[in-house]
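Weekly puzzle thread! Below is a chain. First person to post its structure in token form gets bragging rights.
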Amino acid sequence: MIRTLFEVAFSIPARRASEWVASIVGRRVPPTHPRGYPLAGASSWYGLTSKHSSACLALIVASVFAPQTLQAGIVNTFANIEHWTGSGANSAALVIDWADGKEALVWGYRFDTAKASDMLRAVVEADPRLFAKVEQFSFGQFIHGLGYDRNGNGFSISSGTNFGPTGFVISGAREAATSADPNDSYLETDIGFSMTWGVWTGSGNSYPGTTWAEAQVGISDLQLTDQAWSGTRFNSPISPPGIAFAAVPEPSCLLPAILGLSVCHARKRRTR
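Winning reply:
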């Protein structure tokens, strides 16, 4: 993809490239990324020389769309959690284990009063790589599918479900769908519920490990407390989440974009 973007960028007429860069800086990028990320802001691009505008465009496009694999460490306590969302006096952790041979991941959530369903939705909406399909029953919500874009190059599943701009969708479809990209993670309940997502709880500063307890209520009724661990694992037979790693916040594209801006600005000054 990146090679194609470079070729397209360099084929754009210089004046058009300058105008296009100026029009997108500070706004949302075209929706080819799974959720879209904002570019760094800038107030004046029309001063770029025609000699360098296309090169600058190519550099910025590449910096925004280049796939990135995020590294993470093992979570032993709340202090090891890196990706946080929410606000409040209390802290809880969401643990997702796909049991697919890839890393289980942990996110942090701050709150005053909340249920596990509130935490799941907030975390999904805060992490552009995380996706959830949840069915709404009269008794509350039931997790059908959870997915994670591990290499950052886009996410889709075999059933074609549209997760929308938030990554969180309410749907009763149980299709045992899988990730379209084998490098990503996605597992979904089948129509007969023979394989599904179990819910587990733990408490205290340390990762539950062998002390996980199977939840006796669903996520809509599972009240969070300070230093609560809420885990879910896709499995049959039923077993709790295993060793988990910290989900890492999406790296900002500001650094490479700023680098591109700096290079272009330097070239602009030299050509005056």
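Puzzle host: Confirmed. Bonus trivia for everyone else. Residues 254-270 form the longest helix (17 residues).
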